[in-house]
Amino acid sequence: MRTEQPKVIYLKDYQAPEYLIDETNLTFELYEDHSLVHAQLVMRRNPERAAGDAGAGLPPLVLDGQQLELLALSMDDQALTAADYQLDDSHLTLQPKAATFTLDSTVRIHPETNTALEGLYKSGKMFCTQCEAEGFRKITYYLDRPDVMSKFTTTVTAEQHRYPVLLSNGNPVASGSEEGGRHWATWQDPFKKPAYLFALVAGDLWCVEDSFTTMTARDVALRIYVEPENIDKVQHAMDSLKKSMRWDEEVYGREYDLDIFMIVAVNDFNMGAMENKGLNIFNSSCVLAKAETATDAAHQRVEAVVAHEYFHNWSGNRVTCRDWFQLSLKEGFTVFRDAEFSADMNSRTVKRIEDVAFLRTNQFAEDAGPMAHPVRPDSFMEISNFYTLTVYEKGSEVVRMIHTLLGAEGFRKGTDLYFERHDGQAVTCDDFIKAMEDANGVDLTQFKRWYSQAGTPRLAVTEAFDPAARTYTLSFRQSCPATPGQAEKLPFVIPVELGLLDAAGNDLPLRLAGEAQAGGGNRVISVTEAEQSFTFVDIAEKPLPSLLRGLSAPVKLSFPYDRDQLMFLMQHDSDGFNRWDAGQQLSVQVLQELIGQHQRGEPLQLDPRLLTAFRTLLDDESLDQAMVAEMLSLPSEAYLTEISEVADVDAIHAAREFTRQSIGATLFEPLLARYQANRAISRETGYVAEAAHIARRTLQNIALSYLMQSGKADVLAACLEQFKDCDNMTERLSALAVLVNSGFEQEKAEALACFADYFKDDPLVMDQWFSVQAGCGLPGGLERVQALMEHPAFTLKNPNKVRALIGAFANQNLVNFHRADGAGYRFLADHVITLNALNPQIASRQLAPLTRWRKYDDGRQQLMRAELERILASGELSSDVFEVVSKSLA
Ligand code: 0A1
Ligand code: ZN
């Protein structure tokens, strides 16, 4: 906890470390009421910093350390006493006498009471660690910064009976028993690494074992460790791991480098997973999956997260970050890598649609709020607050744009050079860009503004057709709103992938004025100036532009399409993503019209063209069912909020619900036909994990949710049949969600009770049960959530539970959370205050919805601010919560 205001740390103050640690030898003694950590650090003066030493002597050694009880300290085998060092809350300072020395320390720590889940802690009965970003300093005194890379050898000792499995990074080198029922194991990691990649696990775990033969024919043992009751939920993760390993060899030429690769599933984890060298630790929600307990979406998330963490072995571990401002160096790049992997394993277009919908709803909102920051931030108080959508998702978009600009081959040349040049180093985003430039002979100076300027750029496009000259001109005007600390922005490099459609919907061959000949019908142009025009020649009739295909840049594009043009694009655009996007734009226009009607107190009147467009989709059996499902999904309330100047929560909810009802009523027949056909196949084949079946189930469940709007008894019967008679969680949970959102009170209560009874011992399934109810937009949402907080399966100590109930309520149940009397805000603030003391990282993340107060009407603004102020005044705040609250109120 903080006693004074946390310090702001600036990128511009970066200095290389004064000392380096060549070897780190750790011994852990794990006990039930404390643990001991012995560290032997083989250290030397950093030659880079040694220039002035001859005159000035050696600088002090300042080690990081928090919540450690120092029991013994010696330098070169000389015991040190309190007079030889200074100790405060977060540092141990001492004076080396020689440029090389060995430091030995012993500290006592308390994993058994560590609820922050950072450093060494207990999750249930097992010990585990989480060291990124600055958790290692809670384990021992150290230079806890990513540019200090060391070779680690780790010995773990523990009671054999309770902790038969003892793991750490690298390869196992020795093990044995001790008297008194204890045993030990030693692990050695041959690769130098920063402390944030350190990991240790001790527990009673079972594992599934497999192997992988690398591109150079080396055999790697693969092991996934779980608590015994989960051993039947590991195969999907193992399959995903093997696919990831092969894909990284094929697409990036990257081979795995140790003899063993391990994954451990833990129930209490702040994030999704962690890429510790050779020993990935996963939130169990991102590794466990089987058809009966995990939805299709959950299976896909497991596949993506397994890949993400595996890919970090090169983009993050072999080449790591110099400092935490460079976080996107590893995260943006690795998200891009995992997104491309998922695109290759599943439907590329659907993956892109999902990612863009998420980016637009959530990252764009972050970039427009008080915590907005560049992909490479230039200051922070608490680094844990910067594991953000901007660093991850926008960072990935930035890498995607480089890929778009250089092409797949040029990009690969760039990554080859990057890995070759920087293997074993801790580097910067500039180094990444430099490798791209050098490998391709290009200048990315202006492009780098994507790393330093925050905010979502606007790109307004207008057209001019000259029939006499047969030219068609697109004029672009870019701008970027001010963000905290950045009033003025310079123009970005915006790659715009586009096509021009003729009256039949075909892409016209494209030739820009001045070019010798026409190319294909799809190309990328770079908008680099504040205002810039591009003229296409040989255009006989006025075309319809398809702009920013695949969202080729993370910007907000506007073009004055009318609804008929959007319907045309929905049907004809050769780019699947833009067909979806045209549908979204049509829906947005229609919904915004309804929002206006609601605000003026007029009767709601839905533009029938939306229904026509949806009917066309349902009637065309040749379309990919996954695409149909995506296109039938209306923009979420959260997205409608993001694009509103002032969000009218009630009007948005009313407009969207009205539209859903109209769709259910008007398109009842075709929806029912699709539902019945697809459900019949589900019954016939049972659960099949393949893409076509996933698509079919998605469409089936969307159809069911619309059909249920009718309130018809037949639909209720179908829903109950699906709920009871299916063999998988995808169908069961969808049916449950549809029931929960319906007015069939008795059936709803029975289904919820029956589900909870059956799955009460499976925490991940219970998370889904909480979420479905937390997200229900019917009146009384807050009271339902408050009651669920008392449920025996709920605990504030488990981050997944907090996210499933409190997080789902505040982020997905907007009408209830934003209740006009502010009770939703009070509820959230109360729990943030409690969580602040238990788990600061989780507390600060849950705060996000309150930070968006500027989006709402005056009354709500005041209520939200009042809660932020109440949190600020509530006592000792963690740096995590303090930073977010104080920046939100600034
Ligand atoms: N590097 C991990 C994310 C991660 C970050 C912080 C954590 O603890 C506070 C845990 C995981 C990843 O990108 O997957
Ligand atoms: Zn990552």
TrEMBL record:
<feature type="domain" description="Peptidase M1 membrane alanine aminopeptidase">
    <location>
        <begin position="237"/>
        <end position="450"/>
    </location>
</feature>
<dbReference type="InterPro" id="IPR012779">
    <property type="entry name" value="Peptidase_M1_pepN"/>
</dbReference>
<comment type="function">
    <text>Aminopeptidase N is involved in the degradation of intracellular peptides generated by protein breakdown during normal growth as well as in response to nutrient starvation.</text>
</comment>
<keyword id="KW-0479">Metal-binding</keyword>
<dbReference type="Pfam" id="PF01433">
    <property type="entry name" value="Peptidase_M1"/>
</dbReference>
<dbReference type="InterPro" id="IPR024601">
    <property type="entry name" value="Peptidase_M1_pepN_C"/>
</dbReference>
<feature type="domain" description="Aminopeptidase N-like N-terminal">
    <location>
        <begin position="80"/>
        <end position="197"/>
    </location>
</feature>
<dbReference type="Pfam" id="PF17900">
    <property type="entry name" value="Peptidase_M1_N"/>
</dbReference>
<dbReference type="InterPro" id="IPR037144">
    <property type="entry name" value="Peptidase_M1_pepN_C_sf"/>
</dbReference>
<feature type="domain" description="Peptidase M1 alanyl aminopeptidase Ig-like fold">
    <location>
        <begin position="455"/>
        <end position="558"/>
    </location>
</feature>
<dbReference type="InterPro" id="IPR001930">
    <property type="entry name" value="Peptidase_M1"/>
</dbReference>
<keyword id="KW-0378">Hydrolase</keyword>
<dbReference type="InterPro" id="IPR042097">
    <property type="entry name" value="Aminopeptidase_N-like_N_sf"/>
</dbReference>
<keyword id="KW-0031">Aminopeptidase</keyword>
<protein>
    <recommendedName>
        <fullName>Aminopeptidase N</fullName>
        <ecNumber>3.4.11.2</ecNumber>
    </recommendedName>
</protein>
<keyword id="KW-0862">Zinc</keyword>
<dbReference type="GO" id="GO:0008237">
    <property type="term" value="F:metallopeptidase activity"/>
</dbReference>
<dbReference type="GO" id="GO:0006508">
    <property type="term" value="P:proteolysis"/>
</dbReference>
<keyword id="KW-0645">Protease</keyword>
<dbReference type="GO" id="GO:0016285">
    <property type="term" value="F:alanyl aminopeptidase activity"/>
</dbReference>
<feature type="domain" description="Peptidase M1 alanyl aminopeptidase C-terminal">
    <location>
        <begin position="564"/>
        <end position="890"/>
    </location>
</feature>
<dbReference type="InterPro" id="IPR014782">
    <property type="entry name" value="Peptidase_M1_dom"/>
</dbReference>
<dbReference type="InterPro" id="IPR045357">
    <property type="entry name" value="Aminopeptidase_N-like_N"/>
</dbReference>
<keyword id="KW-0482">Metalloprotease</keyword>
<dbReference type="InterPro" id="IPR027268">
    <property type="entry name" value="Peptidase_M4/M1_CTD_sf"/>
</dbReference>
<dbReference type="GO" id="GO:0008270">
    <property type="term" value="F:zinc ion binding"/>
</dbReference>
<dbReference type="Pfam" id="PF17432">
    <property type="entry name" value="DUF3458_C"/>
</dbReference>
<dbReference type="InterPro" id="IPR035414">
    <property type="entry name" value="Peptidase_M1_pepN_Ig-like"/>
</dbReference>
<comment type="similarity">
    <text>Belongs to the peptidase M1 family.</text>
</comment>
<dbReference type="Pfam" id="PF11940">
    <property type="entry name" value="DUF3458"/>
</dbReference>
<dbReference type="InterPro" id="IPR038438">
    <property type="entry name" value="PepN_Ig-like_sf"/>
</dbReference>
